[in-house]
Structures are given as structure tokens and as C-alpha cells.
Amino acid sequence: MTLGALTLSTAACGAEVAENPEATDGKAVTVTNCGRKVTYDKIPERVVTNDVGITEIMFALGLTDRMAGFAMPDDKGDLDSVPWKDGYSKTKWLSKKKLNKEMVLDARADLVFAGWNYGFNESEGFTPAGLKKMGIDSYLLSESCRNGKEGSRGKARGVMPPLTALYTDLRNLGKVFGVEDRAEKLIAQFRKQIADAQALVPKDRDKPTVFLYDDGRDKPLTSGRFAGPHSIITKAGGDHVMKDLDDTWTTVGWETVVERDPEVIVINDYGDVGAEQKEKFLKSYAPLKNVSAIKHDRIYTLDYADLVESPRNPAAIVSLAKYLRNL
């Protein structure tokens, strides 16, 4: 089961926001982004984003008219059923690959909203520092903030709980774009949505243990405690079996999965290898045959955009909470 149909009803609050930002006095704005103070001299007018969650944060804040375009693969699910369908129809799809300098320059961007490994990458020379030299500002997705010293390669990511990262970005961008009231309204709606879901979580039983399976055959790619699935699982009433990993998206060994014996596996649905193929692999992979989730056929699917930092996270909590409640 995917979340496409549920997302529209449970997250539609984000679609009610008006398009045009409120007037500001034109003063420079400073926010803390990934541990650094960053100053924006004016409200950005031509923003380019990378990937679906980042793009939908802009749409949810009602900033479609500030968008110059977005880049993302076309394997991120059905975009016609989301509350921000109009945003996609009004914004130019620049590329089905990752952003690069040429795309940003062609779009005449004055700000790039992306993240480490969500667009920015030193190995390809596409970094906030490089853009700054060209007079283009950047904002880093908080989920992608590096644990280590900025500029170092190969460091783990994540510096705050996933929902805190989402709320931090909404507040920061609300300030940068002069739409602080909209940001606070969204956060209040999301908090209520999550609280309502949590109120229905059974209190008289142990929390079911949950493993997030993103992809991978030799080693599974999964979520540590700083990626969206951690908050989604725990707020939905589950016990995240990889909560001790101080990282966002990372690989582990299958032996670790077997040892922790999750009662539920959540599949991240995206890419060339879809949820059906991933489920077939999990059920046929011999080392997992005695894992509780496999033995009892407790496998649940969520879309990629539900699981990365995005305004779809609260709806994903609602959806998973319903599933776990009925086990």
C-alpha cells in the first residue's frame, strides 16, 4: 500500500496557503543554517530547488511565484495527487538529473535550495561556496547538515531530530521570504496532525519494532536517527531499530537487521527498483526468512517524498500509525 491517496487528504493544509509573500521592509535577514549564520540581503526572486521534498517545502510555504525551476528524477511517485500539484504545473522542471552550475546560471537563479548529497557535492564542484563566488545564495536542507566539520568529505549527516529539521527550515525560509506567519501556521497544523495520530497509538502494548528498507542487496540502505523515517516511525508508535545510528541515510549489514529482528519493515518506494520488487527480494532473501516482519508478512510501503524531509512527513506519520495500530 502506498500513501499517494492518503497524502492528499491528510496534508492538504499545506495547499491552502496563498501565493504572494507579504511585503517586507527590504532589510537584510540573517538565519542559522546548518550551524552557520547566513545573511540574505533581499528576498530571493528566482529560486532553484533540488529534489521533491525540498521543492514541496517551497510550494507548501506558498512560494511558487519565487521559483525559477526545480531538478529531480521522474521516479519520485505520482505528483498529480499531492496538494501542491499546481506548484508543479507552474514551475519549470529543469532536469531529471541533479542540479549543476549550468542549470542554475541558465535559470538566472539568485538562490539554490538543496543539501549535501541532495544536489550539493564537492566531487562535482557544485557547492554553496562555489555558487557564492558567482553571486548566488544558497540554503542547505537541515536534514543534510553534516555532523563533521563543514567542507569535509564523507562525513555523516544530521544534527537534529528530523521533525525539528523540517520546522527549522520552515521557520528560516519564512523569515527569509517574509512569510513567517505562513510558516508558523504550517508548523501548528503539522503538530496537530501528528498529535492527533499519536493520541490513537495504543498505550497498553509494546511498540512494534520497525526497520526502514530503502534499497540495496549486498547491504541495505536505511535510516539513522537524523533522517525522516526515524520521526515517522517513532511518532507513529513504533520503535525504530536503527535509532542508535548517528546519521541520516546510511548502510548497515544484513546481520544487524537479522539480529534486531524487526516486526515491521517499511519500504521506501522510488527508483527503477520499485516497492513490489523490493518486497519480493526481502521475502526471497534467505538470511531474512526468520525475521519477524518476513514471517508474519508485515511489510508497509511509503513513498520517497514521505520519508525524506518534506511537508509530507506528518501525513506519513498518520498513515503508518494507522497501519501499526491494526497489527
UniProtKB/TrEMBL annotation:
**Which residues lie in coiled coils?**
none
Record's signal peptide: none
Which Pfam family, any one of them, does this sequence belong to? Peripla_BP_2
**Which part of the chain is the Fe/B12 periplasmic-binding domain?**
46-327
InterPro entries registered for this protein in UniProt: ABC_Transporter_SBP, ABC_transptr_periplasmic_BD
Tree of life domain: Bacteria
Task: Say which family it is in.
Answer: Belongs to the bacterial solute-binding protein 8 family.
**What is the protein's given name?**
ABC transporter substrate-binding protein
